[in-house]
Amino acid sequence: xxxxxxxxxxxxxxxxxxxxxxxxxxxxxxxxxxxxxxxxxxxxxxxxxxxxxxxxxxxxxxxxxxxxxxxxxxxxxxxxxxxxxxxxxxxxxxxxxxxxxxxxxxxxxxxxxxxxxxxxxxxxxxxxxxxxxxxxxxxxxxxxxxxxxxxxxxxxxxxxxxxxxxxxxxxxxxxxxxxxxxxxxxxxxxxxxxxxxxxxxxxx
Length: 204
Description:
The protein has ten helices and no strands. With 204 residues, the protein is mainly α. It has two domains: 1-66, Orthogonal Bundle (Arc Repressor Mutant, subunit A), CATH 1.10.10.60; 71-204, Tetracycline Repressor, domain 2 (Orthogonal Bundle), CATH 1.10.357.
């Protein structure tokens, strides 16, 4: 039987298929990925060493899709950090099912190191200390990951509130959007609060 002119597998296809499965199932297994690609599980190991490398390919595909490193580090640090957070949110929000996988696997990829290098350089140039920088980056990432999940949550998360026993909560909910704007407003508010708090942490 002649070999196909176009290879059935390449690393880009594997990463894209793995992202698709994570979106659909909220999990990833080698057998499910092989079925998605129409190959035997053993064929995957000609291209990847195992699950960790597949997750790395998912990260790379996500970065390629969303351009999550496409922000201008020459801006003032607050504007640049906001742009990074928003680009990062856009990347994760497009594949929310992959968030638990991507958020818990070690970050060993050179392209991820390059992104963190860019953010670290930005914060150090702004005047933050070396001890402050990773906690600041982690705080932004944790907020972005939670916000990505919130964007695909139901528009109304708090419901059936009895007005008689929770009048203050009822009044707040009456003035809260009941569509996608709820999550967008929460992200905008939280990001503004983070940046304000970071500014207060700058050494004097």
